[in-house]
C-alpha cells in the first residue's frame, strides 16, 4: 500500500498561546513494500508525521493518501477506521501498552478490534511468537511476569498479529542494550522480507537506518530538509551536523580512511572483513599513495 | 487529545495579580466569598460587579479563558435562577405564563443567587488562573502550619500535593500516549458498544496503573538517594514574599467589606 | 587510593534463590572514571545501589571513605558524598521546576537559603542549564533533565557520582551531553565517576572497565589496554564499535592502516 503526503501541515493546540506548527507543508511518498527511515532530532516532527498515516492526527491542511483512502482535516471516522485496519504501529517503549491477563489475550486485542478472524489468528500465534524470538509456552503467562526484553517482543507481536499492510516503527529499539537492539532490528527485517509491508521507521540511530532503510527523510523544525538514499544522505555530513545529526560510526571511519589514504571504498555498507579485504587488494594494486 | 487542557488552569503572566503573594490572594478570595453572602441590595451587587471588572483588568487574563472556565457553571446558575423564580411566592405578581406565576421577590432572589454563584466562581477562577499550583500549595502549607500543633501534617500534605502537581503533565502525556497506542490497535474510546468501550477503558487504565507503581518506586529511590528524610531539619528554597501590593489589596478589601455592610438593606 | 572498598560482597534478592552478586572484592580509586559493563542480569544495576546504601549487602561490606554503608549514622554523610543519577530522567525529577529540583537535595541537607541560591547559580552554570532554571520538567529534553539531576547532586559537593545507565533513555545528543559532562566532572572537578552502562563506546571513554558476568567481575582492565583485549571481547560476543572490528580484521591480515591505528591506539 502506498502512502502519500501532499502539502500536509499540522498545528498543535490551535488558537491557544501554546500554538505550535508541528508539520509545515510536508510532501513525502512511501512506496508500497519499501522501507523508509525518518530521521531527525527530538521534536523535529517525525512522530507527528507518522501519526497522520493511521489518523491518530489529522492534517490541519493538505491530504494524506493511504492506498485509495484520503485523510484530510474533515475526514469522517469511518474512513479513519478503515485506514487504521491496514496500519500497524509500534510506539516507543511499546511494552507500556500491555494490559491483558495473558500474553495470548493481549496478542488478540488488535485482531479482535479490527474485526479479523480471531480463531484463524489464534492458531498462528505460536508461529508469531517464534518469529519475534519467544517461546510459545509464554502464551498463557501474564505479560507482567516477563522480563523487559520479552515484554517488548510481546508488544511488537501484538502489532504484527494483524499482519498490517503498513508498518510504522517509532524508535522500536529505544532503551535496549546493543544486543537487544540488533535482535529487534533483525526481527523486523525478517518480517519485512516475508510479508512485505510498507515499512516506515523513525529512529535516532543512523546505524539502524543505514542497515534497514532504502530511502531516508531527514526532518528538522517541522519540515523535511533532506531526502534520498542513505549513501546520498551520508555524503552531506556537514549539512547533517548542522541539524545535530551525525552519520553512522561505520561511515565516519571509512570516510576518514578514504580521506587519509586516497583509496575509495565502493560503498559504506562493507562489513569489517570486506573493508579489510578491499583495502588489501587496493594496496597490492598500488593504489595507496601515502601509507 | 489533551491539547486543550490547561494544567491547573494556570496562565503564566506578569500582571498585578500574578505578582501578588498567594497568601494574600487566598485570603482575599475567602473574604470575598464570605462577604458576598452578606450582600442583599442592588447597590451592593453593582459595587461587587464594579470590583469584578476592576480585578479583571488587574489580572491580564484574556476574557475567553474566563468564559471557558465559567461556562459549565452557567447551567447550574440558570437552574438555580428558575428554581427560585418558580418557588418563591412573595411580593407582587409580575406576570404569568400558563399556570406559572412569577413574583417580584422570586425574580429578585433568583437574580441575587445567580449573581452570587457567578461572582464566586469568577473570583476563584481568577485565583487559579493567576497563581501557579505550586505557589498555592506553598501558601496553603504556610497558612495551615499553625495546625501542626494539633497533629495536622501540613508539611507532608504539601509535599504530596507538590509531587502530584509535578506529575500531572507526565500522567497526561502518558495517558495520551497509551490512548494513541491502543487506538492504533483498533480500540475505540468514543464509539461502539458499552462492552467495547469498557474494554478500551481497561486497556488504558491497566497500563497507567502499572506505570504509576513503577514510577513511584523509582521516585522513592531517587528521593532517598538525595537524602530525603521527611520534613525535619529541612530548609526551603521557595520563599513567599509579602509586598506592598498585598498590603494594599488587603486594605482595599477591608474597606470594600465595610462599604458593603453599609449598603445592606 | 581507595575511595570505595567492596569486600566479599554478596547480594541476593529475597524472592530469588540465586545470588546476583557473588563475592566481589574490589576498590574504586579516588579520582578515576570507572565503567561497569555487563549484559542485563549481570548484577551491575544491583551493585550500583550498594555504593550509597540504597540497598545493603546480604554478605560482606561496602566502605565509602572508610565508613561502612551498613552504619545508619554514617548513611546521611555517605549519601551526600556519593551522588546518584538514575536511568529514567522523568522519574528522578522531583520538583516543579529545574531550580527547585536542583535545590531538593540541599533542602534535605538543611543548607541555608542564601547558600542554596549561590550554589544553584554556580552549578547551573557549570552544567550549562542556567537558561532553563525556571522551566517545568515536561518542557525539557531528557538530556536537560539529567543535567538538572547532575546539578542537584553537584550542589551537595560530592566526591563520587554514580551513573546508573543514565544515558540509555536519551537520544544521541542527550547522550553526548551527559558523556561530556561526566568527563568534565572527572577531569576538571576531580570527582570519582562510576558509570554503569551497556554501551562499549561509552565505557571506552573512561579510565577503567569492570566487565561483569553472572554476578562476578570477570575482567578489570584499564582502557589503555583495550587493543590487547579486543580479541577476548570479540570471543565474549560483545558488539564492538566498527573501528575496533575493522582494526581486528586488518591485524589478522597483517597489513597496516595508519588512520585506523591512530584511532584505536591513540597518537
TrEMBL record, chain A:
Protein name, as recorded: Energy-coupling factor transporter ATP-binding protein EcfA2
GO cellular component terms, A-Z: ATP-binding cassette (ABC) transporter complex
Keywords: ATP-binding, Cell membrane, Membrane, Nucleotide-binding, Translocase, Transport
Family: Belongs to the ABC transporter superfamily. Energy-coupling factor EcfA family.
Organism annotation: Marinococcus halophilus
Main subcellular localisation: membrane
Subunit structure: Forms a stable energy-coupling factor (ECF) transporter complex composed of 2 membrane-embedded substrate-binding proteins (S component), 2 ATP-binding proteins (A component) and 2 transmembrane proteins (T component).
Record-listed E.C. numbers: 7.-.-.-
Membrane topology: Peripheral membrane protein
Cellular compartments annotated: Cell membrane
PANTHER family reported in the protein's UniProt record: ENERGY-COUPLING FACTOR TRANSPORTER ATP-BINDING PROTEIN ECFA2 (PTHR43553:SF27), HEAVY METAL TRANSPORTER (PTHR43553)
SMART domains: AAA
Family matches, as InterPro entries: AAA+_ATPase, ABC_transporter-like_ATP-bd, ABC_transporter-like_CS, ABC_transpr_CbiO/EcfA_su, ECF_ABC_transporter_ATP-bd, EcfA2, P-loop_NTPase
TrEMBL record, chain B:
Topological category with respect to the lipid bilayer: Multi-pass membrane protein
An example Gene Ontology molecular-function term: transmembrane transporter activity
One GO CC term on file: plasma membrane
Localization annotation: Cell membrane
Stretch forming the signal peptide: none
Subunit: Forms a stable energy-coupling factor (ECF) transporter complex composed of 2 membrane-embedded substrate-binding proteins (S component), 2 ATP-binding proteins (A component) and 2 transmembrane proteins (T component).
Function summary: Transmembrane (T) component of an energy-coupling factor (ECF) ABC-transporter complex. Unlike classic ABC transporters this ECF transporter provides the energy necessary to transport a number of different substrates.
Similarity comment: family membership: Belongs to the energy-coupling factor EcfT family.
Name of protein: Energy-coupling factor transporter transmembrane protein EcfT
Automatic annotation (TrEMBL), chain C:
GO molecular function, one term: ATP hydrolysis activity
Family: Belongs to the ABC transporter superfamily.
Name of the protein described by the UniProt record: Energy-coupling factor transporter ATP-binding protein EcfA1
Gene (UniProt): ecfA1
SUPFAM superfamilies per record: P-loop containing nucleoside triphosphate hydrolases (SSF52540)
Record bears the keyword Transit peptide: no
UniProt-listed InterPro entries: AAA+_ATPase, ABC_transporter-like_ATP-bd, ABC_transporter-like_CS, ABC_transpr_CbiO/EcfA_su, ECF_ABC_transporter_ATP-bd, EcfA_1, P-loop_NTPase
Subcellular location: Cell membrane
CDD domains assigned to the protein according to its UniProt record, in alphabetical order: ABC_cobalt_CbiO_domain1
Top-level taxon: Bacteria
Recorded topology in the membrane: Peripheral membrane protein
Amino acid at each position: 500500500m502506498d502512502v502519500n503526503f501532499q502539502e500536509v501541515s499540522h498545528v498543535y493546540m490551535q488558537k491557544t498561546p501554546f500554538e505550535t506548527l508541528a508539520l509545515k507543508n510536508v510532501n513525502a511518498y512511501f512506496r508500497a513494500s519499501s522501507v523508509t527511515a525518518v530521521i531527525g532530532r527530538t521534536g523535529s516532527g517525525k512522530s507527528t508525521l507518522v501519526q497522520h498515516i493511521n489518523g491518530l492526527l489529522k492534517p490541519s491542511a493538505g491530504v494524506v493518501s493511504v492506498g485509495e483512502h484520503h485523510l484530510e482535516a474533515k475526514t469522517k471516522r469511518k474512513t479513519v477506521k478503515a485506514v487504521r485496519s491496514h496500519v500497524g504501529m509500534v510506539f516507543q517503549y511499546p511494552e507500556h501498552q500491555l494490559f491483558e491477563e495473558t500474553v495470548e489475550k493481549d496478542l488478540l486485542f488488535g485482531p479482535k478490534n479490527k474485526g479479523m478472524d480471531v480463531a484463524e489468528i489464534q492458531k498462528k500465534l505460536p508461529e508469531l511468537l517464534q518469529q519475534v524470538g519467544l517461546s510459545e509456552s509464554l502464551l498463557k503467562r501474564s505479560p507482567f511476569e516477563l522480563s523487559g526484553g520479552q515484554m517488548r517482543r510481546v508488544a511488537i507481536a501484538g502489532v504484527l498479529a494483524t499482519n498490517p499492510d503498513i508498518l510504522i516503527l517509532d524508535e522500536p529499539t529505544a532503551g535496549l542494550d546493543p544486543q537487544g537492539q540488533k535482535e529487534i532490528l533483525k526481527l523486523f527485517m525478517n518480517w519485512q522480507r516475508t510479508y512485505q509491508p510498507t515499512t516506515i521507521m523513525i529512529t535516532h540511530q543512523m546505524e539502524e537506518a543505514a542497515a534497514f532503510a532504502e530511502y531516508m527523510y531527514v526532518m528538522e523544525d517541522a519540515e523535511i530538509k533532506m531526502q534520498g538514499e542513505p549513501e546520498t544522505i551520508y555524503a552531506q555530513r556537514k549539512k547533517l551536523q548542522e541539524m545535530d545529526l551525525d552519520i553512522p560510526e561505520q561511515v565516519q571511519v571509512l570516510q576518514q580512511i578514504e580521506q587519509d589514504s586516497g583509496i575509495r571504498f565502493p560503498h559504506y555498507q562493507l562489513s569489517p572483513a570486506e573493508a579489510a579485504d578491499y583495502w588489501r587488494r587496493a594496496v597490492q594494486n598500488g593504489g595507496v599513495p601515502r601509507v | 487529545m489533551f491539547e486543550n487542557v490547561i494544567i491547573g488552569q494556570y496562565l503564566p503572566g506578569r500582571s498585578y495579580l500574578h505578582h501578588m503573594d498567594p497568601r494574600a490572594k487566598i485570603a482575599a478570595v475567602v473574604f470575598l466569598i464570605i462577604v458576598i453572602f452578606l450582600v442583599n441590595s442592588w447597590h451592593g451587587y453593582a459595587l461587587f460587579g464594579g470590583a469584578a471588572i476592576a480585578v479583571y483588568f488587574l489580572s491580564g487574563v484574556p476574557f475567553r479563558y474566563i468564559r471557558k472556565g465559567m461556562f459549565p457553571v452557567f447551567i447550574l446558575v440558570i437552574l438555580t435562577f428558575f428554581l427560585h423564580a418558580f418557588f418563591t411566592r412573595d411580593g407582587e405578581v409580575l406576570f404569568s405564563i400558563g399556570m406559572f406565576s412569577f413574583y417580584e421577590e422570586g425574580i429578585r432572589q433568583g437574580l441575587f443567587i445567580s449573581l452570587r454563584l457567578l461572582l464566586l466562581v469568577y473570583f476563584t477562577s481568577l485565583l487559579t488562573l493567576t497563581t501557579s499550583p505550586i505557589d498555592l500549595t506553598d501558601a496553603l502549607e504556610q497558612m495551615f502550619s499553625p495546625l501542626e500543633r494539633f497533629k495536622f501534617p501540613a508539611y507532608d500534605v504539601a509535599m504530596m500535593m507538590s509531587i502530584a502537581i509535578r506529575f500531572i503533565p507526565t500522567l497526561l502525556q502518558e495517558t495520551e500516549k497509551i490512548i494513541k497506542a491502543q487506538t492504533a490497535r483498533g480500540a475505540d474510546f468514543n464509539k461502539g458498544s458499552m462492552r467495547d468501550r469498557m474494554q478500551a477503558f481497561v486497556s488504558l487504565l491497566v497500563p497507567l496503573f502499572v506505570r504509576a507503581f513503577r514510577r513511584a518506586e523509582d521516585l522513592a529511590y531517587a528521593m532517598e538517594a538525595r537524602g530525603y528524610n521527611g520534613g525535619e531539619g529541612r530548609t526551603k528554597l521557595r520563599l513567599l514574599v509579602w509586598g506592598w501590593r498585598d498590603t494594599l489589596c488587603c486594605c482595599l478589601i477591608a474597606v470594600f467589606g465595610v462599604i458593603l455592610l453599609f449598603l445592606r438593606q | 587510593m581507595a575511595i570505595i572498598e567492596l569486600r566479599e560482597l554478596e547480594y541476593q534478592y529475597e524472592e530469588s534463590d540465586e545470588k546476583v552478586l557473588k563475592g566481589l572484592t574490589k576498590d574504586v580509586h579516588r579520582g578515576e572514571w570507572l565503567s561497569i559493563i555487563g549484559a542485563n542480569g549481570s548484577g551491575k544495576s544491583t551493585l550500583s545501589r550498594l555504593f550509597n546504601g540504597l540497598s545493603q549487602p546480604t554478605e560482606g561490606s561496602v566502605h565509602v571513605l572508610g565508613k561502612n554503608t551498613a552504619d545508619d549514622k554514617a548513611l546521611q554523610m555517605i549519601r551526600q558524598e556519593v551522588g546518584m543519577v538514575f536511568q529514567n530522567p522523568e522519574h528522578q525529577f522531583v520538583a516543579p521546576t529545574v531550580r527547585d529540583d536542583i535545590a531538593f537535595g540541599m533542602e534535605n541537607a538543611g543548607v541555608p537559603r542564601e547558600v542554596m541560591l549561590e550554589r544553584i547559580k554556580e552549578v547551573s552554570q557549570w552544567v550549562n542549564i542556567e537558561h532553563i532554571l525556571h522551566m517545568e520538567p515536561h518542557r525539557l529534553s531528557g538530556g536537560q533533565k539529567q543535567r538538572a539531576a547532575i546539578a542537584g547532586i553537584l550542589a551537595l559537593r560530592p566526591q563520587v557520582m554514580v551513573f546508573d545507565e543514565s544515558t540509555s533513555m536519551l537520544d544521541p545528543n542527550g547522550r553526548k551531553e551527559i558523556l561530556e559532562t561526566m568527563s568534565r566532572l572527572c577531569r576538571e572537578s576531580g570527582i570519582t565517576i562510576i558509570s554503569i552502562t551497556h554501551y562499549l563506546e561509552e565505557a571506552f571513554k573512561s579510565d577503567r572497565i569492570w566487565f561483569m558476568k553472572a554476578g562476578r567481575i570477570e575482567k578489570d582492565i584499564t582502557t589503555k589496554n583495550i587493543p590487547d583485549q579486543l580479541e577476548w571481547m570479540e570471543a565474549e560476543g560483545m558488539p564492538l564499535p566498527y573501528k575496533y572490528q575493522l582494526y581486528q580484521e586488518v591485524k589478522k591480515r597483517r597489513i597496516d592502516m595508519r588512520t585506523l591505528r591512530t584511532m584505536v591506539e591513540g597518537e
